[in-house]
Amino acid sequence: MTERATELDAWLYGSRVARFSSRDVGRDARRVELEWDDGALRRWGYRSRLLSHLLPIDPDEPPAPARVAAWLDGLMPEGRIREHMAIDAGVDPDDPVAFFRAYGGDTVGALVFVAPGAEPAADRRPGTRLDDAGVAALLRESIARAGGQGRAQRLTSSLPGMEPKIGLVHDGEGWSRASDEQPTTHILKVARDPGSPTADLVDTEAAAIDLARRVGLTTVDARVETFDDVRCIVVSRYDRVPDPGAPGGQRRVHQEDAAQALGINTRDPERKFQHGRTLPSLERVARVLRDDGARPDPLLALTVLNLAVGNTDAHAKNISMLRRQDGTVVLAPAYDVSMHLHHEYASRVFAMDVAGERDMDRITAGHLVAEGESWGLPARRAARVVARTLDDLRSALGEIDRDAHPGVGPLAWRTVVERTDALRAGLPA
């Protein structure tokens, strides 16, 4: 049998970092490999984790193909969206290298994929200007794509997750559909049907991100907008920074999510939740941060926020790390934070165990402090992080303009206030 092989060069922060390849190995299986570029070794050094915690730069010991495949899979959409984006591009949805041949110009983070031997375009073509009707059309197509129905316009961005969403460019004057290699600046995620029990999900997400900004846990802007008759949340990308000197006026910042860093392949979407497993876990995410020279304190603060607002969806793909050009690593700004527990039939199981407990109604401030201690934080330091976050959140709940979030009902606000107060009441003396 003749092997079918695919190759792509990966560029990061202005230079080639690696070549990814995939080939058939029989019985519908593929082998995905990575070969480091000598220039990456010279620029960032032996065992640098600039690309990934999972994939340190080491030309003498290439990473295991399963690790490479899991990491690349983590950049791709999930479920039907992935399948239909691959069909749109005429590639195998199980071949991540072929997938990024079509969608490698705008990934999550700063990685850009190009044909072997090529370079990313220095002078990117401008995107296609969109009016409200044009944005609405793309949002409707994202809904159709998620439902396995017909498509019309091929997307240019690869965005992980299962919810219908698109990436667009906003330049201060209006919206544009990005050209193939143009970095998008915002993610637009479609609201659920008005008759859905979670129809307010985008509204509570915008409100929760507003709270996260007020307590210093995110730089993301989020708002709910309607284009024609399509409601969505519009979220600024934290991995894009305005820079007049960069092509397209946007500088990319590299990032990876915790599932990628831990080598968890999330083709099965349930694997991004802990739910009693060894991996993923907050302790292992904290270890990644510490191993890469970052403080884990913000991760504890983020966990406090997620528990207080009732965000059951704080799984490993909703926790990320920024891997900056100078080699430093920090926890990424909070994103995909929503309020869930005001819904009558909401799950009460937290996405990650906290000191061995996953029932959100039983997790206390004591559990949070104990969790921080398990990461190596001194007890008093962990307690300060928990107390400060809860105090700041309680102040933010009193200051936030609730009229700016009309889609968030009184029960949702009351639930968050009560949860915050209950956690504060349980702080160690």
UniProtKB/TrEMBL annotation:
Domain spans labelled HipA N-terminal subdomain: 8-113
Domain of life: Bacteria
Keywords, ordered alphabetically: Kinase, Transferase
Domain HipA-like C-terminal positions: 157-395
NCBIfam families given in the database record: couple_hipA (TIGR03071)
Family membership: Belongs to the HipA Ser/Thr kinase family.
PANTHER family (UniProt xref): SERINE/THREONINE-PROTEIN KINASE TOXIN HIPA, SERINE_THREONINE-PROTEIN KINASE TOXIN HIPA
Protein name: Serine/threonine-protein kinase HipA
